[in-house]
Design brief:
- The protein is an alpha+beta fold.
- Helix content is about 15%, strand content about 25%.
- The longest helix has 24 residues.
- The N and C termini lie far apart (about 110 Å).
Length: about 190
Amino acid sequence: MAEKIKCDCGITFEVEEGQTHCKYCGIKLSDIGKEKPAYLAKEDKATLGEKKKGRGCLIAIGLLVGFFILIGLIVSGGEEKKQVTEEKPKATPKTESIELNGKVNFDGAQFHITNLDKGDWVNCHFILNGKYYYPTKTSSWLPGQKIGVIEAGNTVSVGSANFTLLDGTRFNPFAIKPQSLSISCDNGFESWGW
């Protein structure tokens, strides 16, 4: 039969064969009941030999948080904060919007748009059948991309499949007949119909 011992921690338990320490507080069985050393005499019996659970974890978490805060300070403090001010482009005198002079040919696959004006067409976009855009436009409320310059006397060729709806659907000339094409530029507008 195993021997029952009451430990200095206040718990009574049976000592198993080969056991040398209290399984609750960790004190040596041979030290139970002996006078405590001076450094242990001040401690409460309930905390005698008790492992301080969670402290190592808390220290590790604290060090990790401190490390990230330090890195954040180094990264943000190392750079000078620059006040970003966008310089607005100088206003160019707007020319009155005029009707553009041009012609359009469709060969079944491509639209050939010719600038017949004496001046260049600037920042242009095309709309086919009132809803297909070139260059592609992705939102009805955001401005789309534009073709920079179509020089006077030059012809621009645009493949019909390059015209897209807002959702990205491409124009298919085999399924849909081209009925109208309009061009809008900073300096004018023109529309052609078939």
